[in-house]
Amino acid sequence: MVTDPALTVDLAIILLSAAALGFVARQTGQPTIIAYLVAGVVIGPVVFGIVEVTELTETLSELGLAFLLFLLGIKMRIGEIKHIISPIVKISIPQMAAVAAVGFGVSYVLLDGSITQALLIGLAVMYSSTAVVIKMLTDKGEATDLHGKIDVGILLVQDIVVVILLAILAAGQPESVAEVATTLAIVLTLVTIITVIALASSRYALPTVFRQIADNETIFFLVAIAWAFLFIFVSQEIDLFLSPFGIEAYLSIEMGAFLAGVAIAQLPYSKQLQDRVNPLTDLFVMVFFASVALDIRAHELTYYWREAIIAAVVLMIAKFIIFFVLINWQGFDLETNFLGSLYMIQVSEFGIVVGVAAQQGGFIEVEVLGFLTLVAMLTMAISVYLIAFADRLFDRLEGPLSRFEPEEPFAEDGKDYAGHVVAVGYDDVTRNVLPLFSEYYDDVVVVDRRVDHIEALEANGFDAVYGDIGSETIRKDVALKKADFVLSSSDQLEVSKAILREVRDDATVFLEASTDEGARELYDRGADYVITSADLSADRLGSYLEAYLEGRPELDRAITSDVELLRNPDPFPNTHERMTGDLDD
Amino acid sequence: MSELLTTVAILFIIAGPFLLLADRFDLPAVPLLILSGIFAGTVFIQQDDLLVELAQYGIALLVFAFGVGIQLDAIRTVLADSEIAALGQILVIGSLGTAFGVALGVPLAEASVLGVAAALSSTMVGTALVRTEIRMNLVRGRLSESLHFVQDLFAIAVVLIVGAGVIAADPIATQLGYGVVLLAAAVAVNRYLFGLLGRLADGSDELMIVGVVSLLVVFIGVAELAGVSIVVGAFAAGIAVRHDRGEHLGLFTGLESIKDFFLAIFFVTVGALVAVPFLETGPAASVEKLLLATGLIVLVVLIKPAVTIAILMYKGYEARTATLTAITTDQVSEFSLIIAIEAFLIGILTQSVFDAIIFAAAVTMVISSLTQRHDEAIYRLLSSRGLVSTRHDKIDELSNVPDDITDHVVIVGYGRTGSHLVETCKTLEKPYVVIENDPTRREAVRVECDAYVFGDAMEEYTWEKAGVERADIVISTTPSDPVSWRLLAFEFEADLILRSPTQQTALELLEAGATYVVVSDLLAGEQLLRRIEALLEGESTAEQLRDERLEELDRRSVTENR
């Protein structure tokens, strides 16, 4: 029986200190991850020792990791990165091998430990930080630039490797090489099976299910979460299913979450989901990062501090050179190469995750985990500054580096919007205007929240994006910042304001408001034209009544033409030529 | 993987199919989540303290979101409008529920929780179903929204008292004092600290979310220290971050996700706490439980709407509005679930009464979505049996139509469009009759219109009163489809102009014989097309359009203030 409905204090302290340091970090330009890690250091045994790991915080941090991978999975749309998959794989595999080798060498020389330990450190430092790179890319608005796509792609390949490595580590200390090989084989088989199941369901089962519920936002979100948990549960409890057959196997929560995400990513509704899962991920991941240091004591974190500094410097330089050589080998232009390489020089948070798993599996000592944590924190902090000033650095170094410019740079055929039209909402208000726009603009993108509308739009050759313009991912996706003309039929004031805040100053913006006050506010914020459709019907009814009372024949004509318009079954009527002059003029 | 995570995973996996069912049959998610919890509780999940703790975050976030959503000017309108109706209804049904409990031998403290459960209705289920009506600003949409709102405020007060009664030895007055201090602190934080938070976050949604959730945790912590229920702390925290949604859209949609996640855990956990009759409890206890639940359901589904109708009609709303509004209250509130679980956890409530409340909640929420779907039919049924009807002499008393009026215009609704049409008639010296049923507009109609009927456009007598058989034309300004269809069914001699929200129904209405149907969106689309065309062809500039429209806005506000 539960007697005390009180909530734990530990979680409150974690939240508060992380938030406080988060704000400080934001103001000083540090990534928030650093703040969370430091918060854990401060409240954990390293400094004050006021918080310990509890089951609740442990669960939330596990959820954080699971959600981070789920989110990553949702972003993995095969269609969008298909054209650079080949170069990315060719870059990432040798890159990881090379960086792992450097990491192995550095740690073997610096730390007095076994070969296994050095090997694991090598394996832990070969990834770049998804959190840092993706955060910086989106902050700088470069996620869809070529170097952004390359980095994201490489990060995804690295993440797959992390997941496999974590699965192997979860099996614990192996007794022989044969055992490692068996584990690897079982893991790879299971991963393959689950991948096949995920992709098969994404092709055959999920479209029907999710199409049905896509218009119901809450249910859509909760069912997606349930889907993720299904995979998490199966991956985690795989032993339960396999032990009757005498097979002993482990898979990670992360693996399951990631594949559940990938299955959903291939659906057209996945974009919307990203924004729903993101906040939960942010919150739980915070608990995760803050908990990292809760198990580490001060002397463990700083035990190898000199070695950590040396390793951080060596690794950053090595990573840059390795990336630069490999990206250059794949024929990308100099700027893409420079930026793409510079962004990836830090050690990933997954390095810490691998470290934690390795320490729990008994492969490395807790001081070595401290060393890894310190290296990751140092490289992340430094790389954030380098990324922030990457453009200026490139200007300085362009001359000396220009001999690395390939003769025929990799050409991108992907489509990036600029100077286009964004129409929000496909309804009676916007519908008639779309054909007119396509006469004047090359690209017209429509954002809508109904599946059948998206299908109708795409069938008629328009670019349609499923989602809510209130969501940041969607606004980025349709490149609202670069749009020339924005037309929205949403009468939600907050959505209109969000649009106005983001558009270019010289873009033309047509919005809708339900009240005069709303309209005025939007004009104040820079809208070019605000429709208030309720007033329009008032005016129209007024003029009809007037005509009716005066017995004017125009009334019948106007009614006939309006009715004709109403009856027009064509979803994209070419009526803008006919719709001129009537009682309103 | 921690045990708790396994539990949460199972919980969601079980909830998934139930949610699909909810979507398939167009039911609210809440009762299905509770049902999945009852199922899970019987089959899989063991009682788990930590799970209950997670569920508490669900409660906190729900109340928090309620606090965030409160609009102060909305409170003011409500106070002028329906607080008496809401409080009267709470009082009557609350007493009936308590009496029912006592009659079945439940101790008074428990019986009063039963009473509260019967009295409060669910905002999530009740008003979600009338979203369209609220958006169209129909009387009943507004009315049911404010009824629910007053009930929710009342629920917060009850939680405060439930907490005060047991947790601490302090008298209730001290508890209420702490509550007030907490709210004052919240207002201060809102005014001075929240802006700072926004500036410090510097556009980062992530930090805003983490910051606001910390704020929530601080308020909950303070509430706990003061011995007040965490619900009150969460409500205060909500007040503290109340803000223009547009400015922090990422924050508020983010909080929505976090709320949905924990709320799902809450509802399933509530269901899982139920001991299923005959399976998990003995026959005697099971019978008692079912009896309590049935009584509660009858109270909520039949008697509560009846009382609400009576009170609303006494307040001057006509029969149809009163009935349709009352139908939105025929379910148990999610706040009652909070009150029940809090009372259960601190031991005021025994398993039987707790179970009865949860059952009744799940059942009435499902019933509610069904009654909602057929509300017009229910009204017609009641009305044709003479069970609800506005007395003709009452309509006569409130209306003013010259007996000899003829060749006139009948205008349904005196909103912006309606008053515009009246102006037109006045200018052209054409006789007119306005039909209106919103009591808040009664005064304006009485002062500004020469002839008017105060009644429901759905009622035949209203039209008789308006002398429709001698009228030239009928113009309805309400974009409500039931009203439009009803007007067509009357088969007036006069021409009939209607409004419709969608092109599809507009067409159907035309087919059915309407002279003309106005679709605002289509008009907007047409106007837009002309403006955009002019712009693209370089016939006018954006600045011209802007100035033109601003002038128009100025002109209109001048006319309105006159």
Can you tell me about this structure?
- The complex is a heterodimer of chains A (585) and B (562).
- By secondary structure, chain A is mainly α.
- Chain A folds into 2 domains: 67-279 and 301-401, Na+/H+ antiporter like fold; 421-577, NAD(P)-binding Rossmann-like Domain (Rossmann fold).
- Chain A is built from 26 helices and 6 strands.
- Chain A has helices at 9-28, 32-43, 55-75, 78-110, 115-125, 130-139, 146-170, 177-204, 206-213, 217-236, 238-242, 253-265, 270-292, 298-302, 305-329, 334-342, 349-360, 366-388, 390-401, 433-440, 451-459, 472-477, 493-502, 516-524, 533-549, 554-567, and strands spanning 421-424, 444-448, 463-466, 485-488, 508-512, 529-531.
- Chain A has a 6-stranded parallel sheet, sandwiched between helices.
- In chain A, strand 1, helix 20 (433-440) and strand 2 form a beta-alpha-beta unit.
- The model of chain A is unreliable at 1-5 and 574-585 (pLDDT under 50).
- By secondary structure, chain B is mostly helical.
- Chain B has 2 domains: 3-166 and 261-274 and 294-384, Na+/H+ antiporter like fold (Up-down Bundle), CATH 1.20.1530.20; 392-518, 3-Layer(aba) Sandwich (Rossmann fold), CATH 3.40.50.720.
- Helix content of chain B is 71%, strand content 4%.
- Chain B has helices spanning 3-24, 29-43, 49-69, 72-81, 83-103, 108-119, 123-126, 131-135, 139-166, 172-201, 205-225, 230-240, 249-273, 283-314, 319-327, 334-345, 351-373, 375-384, 392-398, 416-427, 442-448, 460-465, 481-490, 503-511, 520-536, 542-561; strands at residues 409-412, 432-436, 452-454, 473-476, 495-499, 516-518.
- In chain B, strands 3-2-1-4-5-6 form a 6-stranded parallel sheet, sandwiched between helices.
- In chain B, helix 15 (319-327) crosses helix 18 (375-384).
- Chain B is globular, with a radius of gyration of 27 Å.
- The relative contact order of chain B is 0.10.
- The model of chain B has no long low-confidence stretch (mean pLDDT 83).
- Classes of the chains: A mainly alpha (585), B mainly alpha (562).
- At the A-B interface, helix 1, helix 3, helix 9, helix 10 and helix 13 of A face helix 1, helix 3, helix 10, helix 11 and helix 13 of B.
